[in-house]
């Protein structure tokens, strides 16, 4: 069972502390012990609708590892997994 | 008797706790005992009017199961049923 | 004597408790003893002017029964009748 | 000596209590003893300039009797008369 | 030495109490002893730039006497004169 | 070494008290002993990008003396000089 | 391992106190002992998407030294380096 995000939203799963170290060495300094802002993209919406009705596809792709703003998104549990739905605009960058 | 939502609004009925478990296994973690944010779509508006007067149809369809932002919408009682009118922009994703 | 609403405004008359029960069975749960948000549409404006100067007619018609957001509109008394002027965007849906 | 309102502004004179009763029977319930929101239109601006530079004429005409939002406008005294300059968007409707 | 206002700004000089009485009989009721909101226009900007890059000239002309919103503008002293720089949108109307 | 402002930003140097008196006789009344809002323009950005991607050049030129809003801009020190980066929209007018 | 910023975002590394002195002599006066606002650009997004769906490339290039607004951006650690992701609009100017 999956959750298909709408428009410019992304379904992401946070990368655990360990995963982050090995994966990309990109961690957000834990000024306060907050949840890591790195995640892996599980599903993407079709994109934002511009004022003249065209679809502006999202740039982020399924499988990308991304860094995103601290307080972004809404938490959802899908098949027992703790996931997050964020807007593409919350994404700071893609880990290469 | 029905309620036809206007423009980009949706008429939805919350999925009860049980329904959510079996249906899609998608529940919003109850940080506070809030009402579940999963619902079934009963009716949809024709869509948002863009600045140049065109209708931007909604993507969500009648019968879809959706996850939506916690504090979204206005509660209405229709023929004894507790329903909710939300905006399409409140929808995080469609359960597949 | 009548009051012709301007642009995207509507002149409506609240449906009394009784009327609501029989009419459409749609009542807004009285979390707080607020005024019912169902009304009958008495007059409509010609519609909103879009940025390029076109008129975007309102969708709601005279005679429609509508459900609208709780704190919407300005109260006016016309020929002794307690009426309300609301914006079309305050309308959640049309009772069918 | 007159005051020519600019763009989408209107110069109006409040209808006194008495005038309102006979004129249109439209009074705004005095929840608090506020100034009546009915007025007669003395002068109108040429209209709002849309984003692409066109003039969007005002719909309200000189001589119209209008109902407008409670706290709208700026008071001005012209030749001893207490008048008000409001925006067309403050007008709820025209009394017919 | 002069000050050429930019875009949709106007350089104005307040009309003194006396000037107002004789000139146009238009005074803003001094609910609180505020500075009079009538002024004479000394210089105007070339106009606002619309979104598609065109210049939308100001309607107000040098020499006009205007009434403007109470708290508008920034005070400047030019060659010993106390003047004010306001936006055209702060002008309620032109005294004719 | 110079600082090239971006888009609609300007690099300016405040005119000292003395410079202001002789230069243009334009001083902002020191209601509170604030820093003078007159400055000389050292560098300008290429201009604002409009919604359809065109460059809207700034009107202010290098060498102009300008009056600007009191609390505008960010202070920077370049080669020991105390300078300010402001937006063109903060400029009230150009001293002629 | 790198972090590719999205759209109009930039990945930058702060210039240390020493680097600033020699590099461009541009320091932001430390009214309060805040982090220096000068940085070197390590990576740039493809640019902002305008309303009609075109890409508006960023003006700032990799290798530029920039001055940016004090409280801008989100801190990220990449391969042990303390970096910052800011928006191009936070950049006051490019050090030449």
UniProtKB/TrEMBL annotation, chains A, B, C, D, E, F, G:
Keyword tags: Chaperone, Cytoplasm
GO CC field: cytoplasm
Family matches, as SUPFAM superfamilies: GroES-like
UniProt cross-references to SMART domains, sorted A to Z: Cpn10
Predominant subcellular localization, coarse grouping: cytoplasm
GO terms for MF: ATP binding; metal ion binding; protein folding chaperone; protein-folding chaperone binding; unfolded protein binding
Domain of life: Bacteria
Subcellular location: Cytoplasm
Alphabetized InterPro entries for the sequence: Chaperonin_GroES, Chaperonin_GroES_sf, GroES-like_sf
Entries under Pfam families matching the protein: Cpn10 (PF00166)
Subunit structure: Heptamer of 7 subunits arranged in a ring. Interacts with the chaperonin GroEL.
Family recorded in the similarity comment: Belongs to the GroES chaperonin family.
Role description: Together with the chaperonin GroEL, plays an essential role in assisting protein folding. The GroEL-GroES system forms a nano-cage that allows encapsulation of the non-native substrate proteins and provides a physical environment optimized to promote and accelerate protein folding. GroES binds to the apical surface of the GroEL ring, thereby capping the opening of the GroEL channel.
Name this polypeptide is given: Co-chaperonin GroES
Source organism: Entotheonella factor
Gene that this sequence comes from: groES
């Amino acid at each position: 069972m999956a959750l298909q995000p709408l428009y410019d939203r992304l379904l992401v799963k946070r990368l655990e502390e360990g995963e982050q170290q090995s994966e990309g060495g990109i961690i957000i300094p834990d000024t306060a012990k907050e949840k890591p802002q790195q995640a892996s993209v599980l599903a993407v919406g079709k994109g934002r609708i511009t004022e003249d009705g065209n679809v502006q596809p999202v740039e982020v792709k399924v499988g990308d590892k991304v860094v995103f703003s601290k307080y972004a998104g809404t938490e959802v549990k899908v098949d027992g997994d703790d996931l997050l739905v964020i807007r593409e605009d919350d994404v700071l960058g893609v880990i290469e």
